[in-house]
Fold these 4 entries.
Entry 1:
Amino acid sequence: MDVFEAVAEPNRRALLDALIDGERTAGELVATLPELTQPTVSRHLKVLREVGLVEMRPDAQRRIYALRADGLVQIDEWIERYRRYWTNHLDALERHLTKTHKETK
């Protein structure tokens, strides 16, 4: 599985969203998805770890999860192409609207 397959699943995206403000324990992450069982959340976390989007560190009996910024690079690079696309199209739209507005005065 790759990063894109991992984030295609909505519950995994929800787990990433839960980690955006900082580290969370496994129990806290399970609580963010009350419709899922603990084993199911653990499987999702395992997938996110395997593709490099999150890391886990043990803390006594707890497992602490955090985002791995470097894991998001592949997604960011892919999205960048679309940012450029939208920027170019929005710039063209702005020029068109400005021109149209000047012509109607």
Note: Strands lie at 24-25, 54-59, 62-67.
Entry 2:
Amino acid sequence: MKIGLISNEKFKSYSKDISLTINSLGHKAIILNRSNDLLKNCDALTEAIKKGRIDRGITIDDYGTIPFMFIAKTKGIVVAQIADEHSAFMTCAHNNATILAFGGEISTLHQIKNMVKAFISSQYDGGRHKVRIDMLDTMLEGQ
């Protein structure tokens, strides 16, 4: 699996450490920061997913809120703002989340690495959960 990572300037070192963790699990981490502008990097991350260059994404900034709010408006991509391992696993399994937004001021690097491991190990269950995803996509069609 290919995992794209973006961060703000303050948490670039987290991206590098997390990429090492992802690679050690047999996956490929790709740091997609192309700018000092976090929202431009969010665009790069969502485009990479839409075009199939990566399978999932990770964002890291102070609180995870700005990337979450920005990416949540992108049709076809489900993003979750996460601060615990159970949610990291379940948001993929139940919501088909492809991007997690982390806050480095909320979670430690160690905690984020554990959440990334949970996220990577999870797969979408589909079934009854697909109704929710379809409803979200329908809401975004008018935008």
Note: The mean pLDDT is 91.
Entry 3:
Amino acid sequence: MKILGLDISLRSTGVGVVERRAGQLVAVEFGLIRNAAALPHSACLANIQAQLAALLARAQPGAAALEGGFFFKNARTAMILGEARGVALAACATAGVPVYEYAPRLVKQSLTGYGAATKTQVARMIMTLLGLREPPPEDATDALALAVCHLHHQTGLVALQPQPL
């Protein structure tokens, strides 16, 4: 099963596709969807949608995982992230890919055994689990971590399965 992890932001969305092959986790592809600071807001959203649609068509994941549980003091920041998340959700829905949401602490705990792990600890674990020689860019690391978290939560017990958004 292939899982697409998404670390959504307007200027640098992290993406990572992880697959379980013969009991091993493999990073199929990962990277960033970048938007220049000078690019208008609507153009950034269109670019995220287009690049995610292409990735979904190319990788054909069985599910997508993204981070949930955000609280912002700045309403504008929350609105911008919400719009970018909406574009990602719509791209996945259009491709028929169910989306699952995981709290940041749960992702860290799933990978390191400690819900307050540092970004460095998560990056090292991602490198170890996926056999990477160098750490991916930070946003791509977070996306890969989300994908691995989802794979870790796939059990044979229906009652324990996460529910899609």
Note: The helical segments are 41-59, 75-94, 104-112, 119-130, 138-152.
Entry 4:
Amino acid sequence: MTTPTPLADTIRPESFEEILGQDHVLGTGGPIRRQIDQGRLFSMVLFGPPGCGKTTLARLFAKTFDADFISFSAATSGIAEIKKFMAETEKRKHLYNRDTIIFIDEIHRFNKAQQDAFLPYLEKGSVILIGATTENPSFELNSSLLSRVKVYMLHPLSFENMKQIVLRGLSADNGLANRFRLTDEALDFIANISDGDARVALNALELASLAAKDKTIDIHTVEDVVQKKALKYDKQGEEHYNLISALHKSLRGSNADAALYWLARMLEGGEDPLYIARRLVRFAVEDVGKADPNALVIAVAAKDAVHFIGRPEGDLALAQCVVYLAGARKSNAVYTAYEAAKEDALKTLAEPVPLHLRNAPTGLMKKLGYGKDYKYPHNFPDARVDQEYMPENLKGQTYFKDG
């Protein structure tokens, strides 16, 4: 029995123009587009989330530049195996003047010593290395390797990108060739649960096509094959804003249970966890503020945890943050103070900084009176001294009211 090729592989883009969501590098004037137009290919590392097109890009480079293509996974391939192939490609380069692209998926899994083994071949230009990673290369790859490659960051695929890819899989001759009808509700659901990963979306579509009755793929079919309930949630529409508002207001009202529920609704509905993390950081400074400065530390730590470990493990970091923020003392004093200061900064005359508050690094500045009569607070009891810090037109103005 022959195992069929997965849909995600059969409809892989066959040209750079078919790749979605990466116009910043592939569009007119983009750095990768310039390499293609100039007919010059350099070793590179593609940094981006799963399913955004890293492997596809590498394969298209080989096709466009008529180069041999060898693919490895750093998770399963040993460095000895790769060095063997690199030595062989070096010989082929000398004998036939033919380029070879060595594509290494999950390159961040190689340790420093293993990464160093690539350096002689990159230095001589005998191979073209294309690495793919979901981890930040600045932290995971050593500096000597980074100095010899170009790093390109690829973007997560958007909700609309995901819908386009699913529809391509449905209609392509090498895909499902329009043999099935996909309801709009099912299309939105697949796009939501795939979290920007094209492979996940196409796998879900393919499984649903195998389970479809009467050639119709509806929401219930997709729910059944992915074992996930469709929640009423549109990341691009009103429900997106309704739910984040409900989460924010539940936190402001110190109701941890409601906040956890709205958090779960958003995450299980397919919301980007980093979007939620950013809103929690905003809440920590807007609604908790000086009443509990540790709230900002915890919110930023939750954001870092989500970025570091992803889903579903990162969901618990957000849940922990939500419970902490709900239970924290609340104060919007810093928020209201800054808004008042911002209004004055925008609407009042931008008067010059008072002379006594200016630094005087040159003799001329001292002669002009810069820094004259400034009172150094540390020379006074409790490091406090009575002197004016506001410009002339705002003397006596107060913004922050502690409490």
Note: Residues 79-96 form the longest helix (18 residues).
